[in-house]
Amino acid sequence: MEAVNGGGRTKVARGLRTRVTCLLLPFMLSVVAPAAIAPAAIAQETPSGIEPTDIWSEEYASGMFPWGGNAQIQFQEYHDYESTKARMQYLADTNPDIISFHEGLFGGLNDRGQETSLDDYKGWFYNNPSPWVKITAGVENGDYNPFNGDAGNYPDRPDVMLVGNHHAREWMSYEVPMLFLETVAYYYGQAGLDNDGDGLIDEDSWNGIDDDGDCLSLNASFQDSNGDGVSCGPGDLGVDEDFSEQYITDLVDTREIYLIPILNTDGLIYDQTEWLANNCNGATTANAYEECPRSGWRKNLRDNTVTGVTPIPDLDEAVDEGCDGVDLNRNYQFEWGAPLGATGPLIPGACYAGVNNDVYNGPVDTVDQDGDLRLNEDHVDGKDDDADGLVDEDWLGGNSEPETKFIQDMTEMNDDNNDGASDFKATLTWHSFSELVLYPWGHCTDCESPDHEFLVYHGDQMAQMTLYENLQSSDLYPTSGDFCDWHYGVHNSYCYTMEIGNNFHENPDDISQIAVRNLGVPFYMVEIADDPRFRAVHGLENMSARHWIQTPSEVSIPEKGDIQIDLCLDPYFPFSTQEDRSYLSWRFVEPNRLQNDYGPTEWREVPWEKAPFAASGDDCELKDGTNGTVLTSAVPIPDTSVGKLQYRAQLGTTNGAFPFTYPTIEDGGNYYELTMPYRAGFGSAVLAVLMFIFIAGVVWGGLAFLLRTMFDDDAPVLSLPPGGHE
Amino acid sequence: MSSSSDQFSGRLGLIFATIGAAIGTGNIWRFPRMVGANGGGSFLVPWVIFLFLWSIPLVIAEFALGKRSRTGTVGTFRIFNGPKFAWMGLWTAWISTAIGFYYAVVTGWCINYFQTAVRGGLGSDVDTTEVWNTFLQDPSQVILFQTLAVLITMAAIWKGAKAIEKVNVILMVSLFILLFSALFLAFIMDLNDGTLDGFVYMFSIQPEYLLEPETWINGLSQSAWSCSAGMGMAITYSVYMRKDEDTTLNAATMCLANNSISIIAGLTVMMAVFSVVDDPLSAVSGGSSAITFLVLPEVFAQAPGGPALQLAMVAMFFLALSFAALTSMISTVELCVRNFVDHGVNREKAVGLTSIAIFLFGIPSAATWILVDESTGVAFPQFLEVQDHIWGYGLMFSGLFIAYAIWKYGWSRYKVWQTENGIEGFSMRDYLDHGVSSFRDDFINTGDNDWWIGKWWDYIMYLGFPIMFVILMGTFFVDMLVTVEDPWNPTNPKGITIILIFWGITAFLFISMNRLMLVNRVVPTGKSGFPMCLLSGEYVLEPRPLFRNVPEGADVPIDTLPGGEDPFILKVGDPIPEIENQPFAVSGGSVMDAEIV
Q: Would you call B200 and A684 a contact, using CB atoms and an 8 Å cutoff?
């Protein structure tokens, strides 16, 4: 067991000894479990300096998964193409109600009017179709889709596509989907499991936070089990470890999940066998991390010198690493083409090993798809470029590879309700590396999609789960023809690219914790697949409901100058800094100067004015107790004014979809009202006395003078002109 | 009908009566509010200026009119503007009386607060809002005190000028004493914290306010209302002047006295409020009359010197307020009564009728449509407020009619001069020399006055007044347009349309009545009596005699005036001429085709 707790990170020892231990663990645990729970309960009462085994089951504390199996299945060694396929097959066989196993597509007449067959979806080189599983309750029932070859199609179930390994060397990108598959297979249909053996049930679900505080209760040296420098963050033992099995069951019962762990079978096989051997000191998957952590084979194995339109035959048919292959994630059709983040087109028959060869996007299309004798005149961009009434019907290129055809046909032929639109409203693809969540667009810079803030919203949620950074794809680097631009641009599917980890070939010791760290993401995507846009709207509304604006009693009125009014903002809220979208509305209502004598005070109606918000840099506590950031606004009110300052805030979102106003209805009304006292001085005593003397002199003095004149019979007539009357 | 003329006993009597009329609740609750809302000392500048530009000149005109016509408003306009315009007097009388309907209710509030104060009901431990709401929402209480106000008023004017004079002297002298005492206490209060901030604020000019038109408009309107100039009240009281009474110095004295009281009351309120309330300007400038009944009792209850002095302070204040209201009430009722008496109605009967009318028509204001302001929880009388809203600015027309009398007389004298000198065609120079100044020459500078009025008065009446009138009317309507929601909706009680409707109906009715009821009277000739005979046409119009209250030996010729040739305008005690011989006798005709005389 010393291997388990070695050092600050979970060093799961490799080798036969551990493997045997792992296999035996479930058995051992069943014996020791009653004894293990008792000290855990005691340990929780004294939370300082405790060890994982004090609070958790031995199994969980050692980072083992409950489904047993060998080191691959325990995510301590990498799967390869064959073992992945075998495991998928096995899980489908053992869970036939919810999982069906498939390879490639059967084909037929596709959505574009092309006849295809299974062969069209097999890799160029090793001739393997991509293995995939369909996950849904009653997967053998429901409608049968003869093109895709899957049953279990239900028009009322939202569909979600999860794709790993576009890029061969990005190994974690198929390990994460495999962990997802294992998790679904193991936990489906169960409820109320105590995953970590702490006696609590479903107390810590996927959100990137140690909800139950068990990790935080550990001795500090155990709090960062994945060694990423963050204590009790995503991927650490004790964080998001006890999710709800019912949640998984519900998702499987109500969604159709298309899980494609290895899209690029050719590339993966080549990377793990030929490339490592040839380019990496003969390394294997087990030690690729030491030798070549950040290099490897990326593309598929298209033979750019012989296949396709190339007229010159490549006699040996071997992979030419300097030339062959297409970057599958540049081969989708939406805005396909160079120059953004892709190379190509290559000169037919020629090949060059330029720096961008790794992102070759495939050959230019040579077919006049619409038969109008014009070639490639209507590029896939959602617009009718040639104004012939058809959209995107004669494309420039892309979709040239078996793997991308597989994705595109699967997408386009999956239309359970026959409404002409693809069923996939949410799509996810895994890549490595950089610890990012990416959302469309990729093909343009300084641009925003129409759903920008909603995409940001979901991206933020997944970024919080993983402690990754949420970015627009093109902000990392521009890419044209990638999976997500196509899904979002053509099929209006909310599509995310997870950039997992920090290497292509991660240390096998880290497979498990990286996969665990990313496990919540696919479930999140499955969950939102019903209506990602609505869920974003709803989520933003919930998020916005945590904001608050200072009530009148919270606003402090300074002796002089502007009135500062603060709003506590969720830092993740996609608030617009544009002054016409986010601002403090205020008006200063004064008593009407022409006041009625008998009714209630009349107030002068004045139009609302706008004061901009500025980030003050201060922190505040949102309504739910989480951290917010203070936006402040200065309202100019003269010191001499007396009346009511009415104010409300409007927060616009970045794409202007909403204005949220504060105070909310729950806060009680559409604006707050702050009574403004007179703040200026009352005046100078000396001047006041002078003024008093003047006024009193005129009025009282005048009166006295008149009275004297009146009763003085000898007084002359006032202001009588000489020779005037009388 | 009295057989001899009714007069004040002396100059002081006249002055006290007119001061009593001028000083009302407006001096005590409206003036401090205006000072607070319009920048303290900044407000006093236009207020003093318009005292000389508006109040004094208009009161001089009123005194001159009444002293010559020796009748109430209807008679005065019949004489000065001609028989076609007697309705102007009716309008003036009606506006004053319509205000009197609810003013009696307000006077009742004041009296009630006085008695509540005396009984210790306004101590420091009292929730003044509750006191106010409880009172206002109890119709029997409000009507009780309204009745009391009407009865006191009735008693005061029952006997005519001499009684009015006596009551006014007593009430005014008491008012001065009460207010001075309150001022003294307020001074002590304000000085308690080492500063006289109420005093300082009230007399500090904030220059920015002087640049705002509202300050000037408010200064003008405060001058226009507070002094009762143009209301017809001075016309009415001048009927009781002795034959050689001064009109100009008295007018100025009355207005200056009114403003003097405003300063005293304003200082009292400001100093008291500033000494106690945290945010004095909100309290002073924020609201309506209700503030007087909410804030001031609370403030005075914190006066120094213990409960006895506090009680004295509250009681004194509300007694002063009651007196101010009562003297104004007296002038209001007298204005109406005088018109009846002028037309031969017995004084006691006229007083009785007017009092009953004021009581009855005041009941809706007293007891109906009492609402509670949602934001403050303070009750307010919506019906009363609407009445004030409708009739308050009607006063302005009374002032306009007075100006019209002056303009008309000037023009007619100019025409006479032209005829006498055989000059044709308009010449501004001649008009200025022989027209514009004639009213002043003939009716103001008569030799009885201690103050000779110069040309400035002509400028004010011919140029200043129309400008000020337009500004006041204009801002009144523009303010409504801007601040009132849906001002053109006739059902909006605070709108413009409702005002125009009521003014229109009243004016139409009065103009129609001019021929039938004011200068003539309808005598049914058939079976149907009045008013059914108007429809059947079976009636004749007989000239209605008008009795002038001319003192013995006074020389008050009216033959140069538009209505002066009318043989049915008589001195009290003169016999009524034979109707058959008079050109004013008109045979019957239907209302529809009858022309206004």
A: yes
Residue A3 — very low, low, confident or very high, per pLDDT cuts 50/70/90? Answer: very low
Element holding A428 (H helix, E strand): strand A424-432
CB spacing of B454 vs A642 below 8 angstroms: no
- What pLDDT does residue A7 have? 38
CA distances (Å), B270 to each of B8, B216, B248, B261, B418, in order?
37, 21, 33, 14, 57
User: In 3D, which of B292, B270, B274, B312 has the Cα closest to residue B128?
Assistant: B292
Model pLDDT, residue B214 = 82
Contacts of B470 (CB under 8 A, 6+ apart): none
**Residues of B with Cβ-Cβ distance to A710 under 8 angstroms:** 11, 246, 249-250, 253, 450
DSSP, collapsed to helix, strand or coil, labels residue A592 as coil
* β-sheet bridge partners, residue A160: A257, A426
**DSSP per residue over A402-416, as a string?**
HHHHHHHHHHHH--T
Q: Verify whether the Cβ–Cβ distance B290 to A598 is below 8 Å.
A: yes
Q: What is the pLDDT of residue A183?
A: 96
pTM confidence score: 0.69
Ramachandran sector of residue B586 (left: φ over 0; alpha: ψ -120 to 50; beta: rest)? beta
For residue A356, pLDDT beyond 60: no
Look-up: residue for tokens 């002043």? B440
Which is more confidently placed, A705 or A576? A705
pLDDT in tens, B548-582: 888 887 788 888 888 878 878 888 777 877 765 44
The ranges of chain A annotated as CATH 2.60.40.10 are 547-676
3-state secondary structure B255-268: HHHHHHHHHHHHHH
Give the start-to-end residue ranges of the domains of chain B: 14-60+101-228+255-369
Which CATH number does the domain A547-676 belong to among 2.60.40.10, 3.40.50.300, 2.40.300.10, 2.30.29.30? 2.60.40.10
Q: Round to whole Å and give the CA distance between B293 and B104.
A: 16
Which two structure tokens, joined as six digits, stand for A693? Answer: 């003397």
User: By the CB < 8 Å criterion, does B178 face chain A?
Assistant: no
Range ranked top by mean pLDDT from A25-39, B478-492, B583-597? B478-492
Q: Cis bond leading into A663, ω under 30°?
A: yes
**Number of other CB atoms surrounding residue B527 within 10 Å:** 9
Taking only the tens place, the pLDDT of each residue in A111-153 is 888 999 999 999 999 999 999 999 999 999 999 999 999 999 9
High-pLDDT (> 90) share of chain B, %: 26
CA distance B435 to A153: 105
Instruction: Select the residue of B106, B208, B445 nearest A725 (Cβ to Cβ).
Output: B445
Structure tokens at A182: 């294992």
Question: Please, which pLDDT band fits residue A350 given cuts at 50, 70 and 90?
Answer: low
CA distances from B571 to A225, B378, B575 (A): 117, 53, 9
Give yes or no for B365 touching A (CB within 8 A): no
Contacts with A291 (C-beta within 8 Å, 6 or more apart), sequence order: A276, A280, A281, A283
- Residue A591, exposed/middle/buried by CB under 10 A (0-12, 13-18, 19+)? buried
Q: B329: which 2 tokens?
A: 């009430």
Encode pLDDT of A302-316 as tens digits: 887 654 444 444 555
CB atoms within 10 A of CB A561: 12
pLDDT of residue A426: 96
Which amino acid is present at B198?
G
Is A692's CB within 8 Å of B388's CB? no
Tell me: pLDDT of B191 over 60: yes
**3-class SS letters over A554-572:** CCCCCCCCCEEEEEEECCC
Q: Report yes or no: A540 and A574 within 8 Å, Cβ to Cβ.
A: yes
pLDDT at position B203: 92
